[in-house]
From TrEMBL, chains A, B:
Top-level enzyme category: transferase
Pathway as given in its UniProt record: Protein modification; protein glycosylation
Organism classification: Eukaryota, Fungi, Fungi incertae sedis, Mucoromycota, Glomeromycotina
Protein name as catalogued: UDP-N-acetylglucosamine--dolichyl-phosphate N-acetylglucosaminephosphotransferase
Native organism: Rhizophagus irregularis (strain DAOM 197198w) (Glomus intraradices)
Chief location category: endoplasmic reticulum
Amino acid sequence: MIQFESIDSPLNINLCSFSTLLSHDPLSVSVGFSIIGGLITCKLVPEFKESFIKAKLTGKDLAKDDKEPPIPECMGVICATVYLVCMFFFIPFPFMEWFSGKGKISQSEEFHAPTFPHHKLGEFLAAMLSLQSMTFLGFADDIFDIRWRHKLFLPAIASIPILMVYYVNFGVTHIVVPIPLRFIFGRIIDLGFLYYVYMSMMAIFCTNSINILAGINGVEIGQSLVIACSIAINDFLFLNDADPAVEAHLFSLYFILPFIGVSFGLIIYNWYPSEVFVGDTYCYFAGMTFAVVGILSHFSKTVLLFFIPQIFNFIYSCPQLFRLVDCPRHRLPRFNPSENKLEYSRVKIQKPLKKPASFVLDLFELLRLVKVDKGETSIEVNNFTLMNLLLLKIGPLHERTLAILVVVIQILASCLSFYIRYHLVHFFYEVI
Amino acid sequence: MIQFESIDSPLNINLCSFSTLLSHDPLSVSVGFSIIGGLITCKLVPEFKESFIKAKLTGKDLAKDDKEPPIPECMGVICATVYLVCMFFFIPFPFMEWFSGKGKISQSEEFHAPTFPHHKLGEFLAAMLSLQSMTFLGFADDIFDIRWRHKLFLPAIASIPILMVYYVNFGVTHIVVPIPLRFIFGRIIDLGFLYYVYMSMMAIFCTNSINILAGINGVEIGQSLVIACSIAINDFLFLNDADPAVEAHLFSLYFILPFIGVSFGLIIYNWYPSEVFVGDTYCYFAGMTFAVVGILSHFSKTVLLFFIPQIFNFIYSCPQLFRLVDCPRHRLPRFNPSENKLEYSRVKIQKPLKKPASFVLDLFELLRLVKVDKGETSIEVNNFTLMNLLLLKIGPLHERTLAILVVVIQILASCLSFYIRYHLVHFFYEVI
């Protein structure tokens, strides 16, 4: 049986969805857990500040005066732990109807589970396991500063449980080819093993791409919240009993709603001026949540659409990430204390330039993506990140303004994604 | 259907078991992973020493000269992480036969899984999730020094996934009453919800009881290795295709063997004189491994039998743990540098004694479990731990000798447990 990402029109955005929402008991419970999770995070973060400072888990705010006291770092671990505990308590709820003997399994699933949907429970457990692994690894990274080349592959290891469950529950490795490419590949390609590679790559991408669009107050959680809300809105569009994908989108909501809750609980303290930093832990935790939901709910392409700013930032960063151009330890915008604003930061490259560096610089200059100042023995160029690019184009900005700008870009990108997903999709796929 | 811990005779300890062993492919793979896990731990621990010292995760060896440099603390996290990664890669192997289409499900399981044993995969995932949660919480405890009353309940939260899977896969809450008590309770009691409370209590007990029989070089891993080997030996006794419990004991072996592997990899550096400390992380990780295996393989009573020294130490410690008698921060034996030996440590209690304290002291003195020195305004008594008791009875010992002694006691206790489990059991249960 060939399954693929279900493609539907947005006509279902109506009150019907919301009445259906209320009829799904576990969903109401999930909303409850999300609110409770947010409140607990909100309460625990200030309580744990002292412990973090005592444990020397602190950082310096690079975009503030030197005199500021050190700020507790990697508080994302609190929010992730609250999330995981909430999910532990939530796991039984979607299965309540089976416990009370009222559970019914849809016809297509009958062959799986005549008495209890063990395969669905497996999905929950695997998703939790992957999320927890990634949180754990993120926390370890915050503490031990794991080497770049090692940490790149950690998400791949953390995604093993979901890939395993994907294999036994779905095992679908076919993709439907976009219409314009069908004259080459035909309608369906079986990627086989490569599909699993694609899914691990997705986990690697989601976690690391949030981690490199980071560094100023509130921006990590800001972008994650926009992505999470976009996923949740997309899920609500499918919450119609008649929709075959309703189960998958409920699964997604169960994971995304508490994520939104705990993230709100944390951003209160992380927004400008930050009282706490979120650390790599949060970025990994957030990225993995999106990857897990995308993979196990079969809309990985839609999730990736919500990552447009991250994809741009990643491609733009590649020359530095892959060391074609020198990459300093921090590529954050530079703080100008006299104006209390952030300016784009620059990197000095010694002449003579190597060929790839010179090619990249020429190309990016042609595309007006960089500003190159040529000196006698070296050249200076802005660091290749979205935030530096914004500061280059717009001029120096206050830290809060830059964070708001990034969030606004993320929101606009989400609007574009919805447009692509529900309108332009006609040019690429048949809409069922 | 009423299931209970299967009670079998030890007659199967024969070559047949070992030939069966080799015929179980996943078991050979598990042995392979255990060896690899041990080697990797052995390689990583010295490599990470510097990172731990840099991250200020260090401790002072209280039973050494003051001049010794600080020692990397909570290295158990390395061994637990290696274990978890090994298990991630191992998970598919027990299911290989289903992937190749050759899998067969035993008749009793047919109603569960006509196409794939999703319920078994669920057990693996839940076990991993509980183990990982406990490791994560242990690590957090090492870093943040979580309050005693909070950390007592962490294992209960970490055990939710296995309880959930226990509920849906087995749901058995009946216990068979020992013969001498049947005239009161009848042959079978249904504990209902209390059975789940019992299982969480077991997780709390296993993790914390190892954590309180700790503090001198090598003793945490030493006792855990003896318990793990005892569980493994007990599992091998059932590895006979005819035995109905073979699946459960294979499950247990898959979790215990890699644990033995990584623990050996770590004890090399933790045995006297320690180059690294294992931290609460290791104690929690070890305890949870035993609890998970006991619960999901249905031999929790047998696992508890292997905890005799820990049970004794716990009961003996109760007056201090529950603050009937003053409890100092550390109850470790006291180091005497002039003789390079450990002596029992003492606690001073101000007079007048409260009634419960006075009762406990009188009772323990009667049982010759304490040495009380009465002064005018206060009395001094040895701290209530197994190690202090040994030093009280035998006299001062070298640290290595004391660690060996604890391990020997653990081995003797295991021999006693096997005797109880396979001989005295006739007095309590019908042997099938």
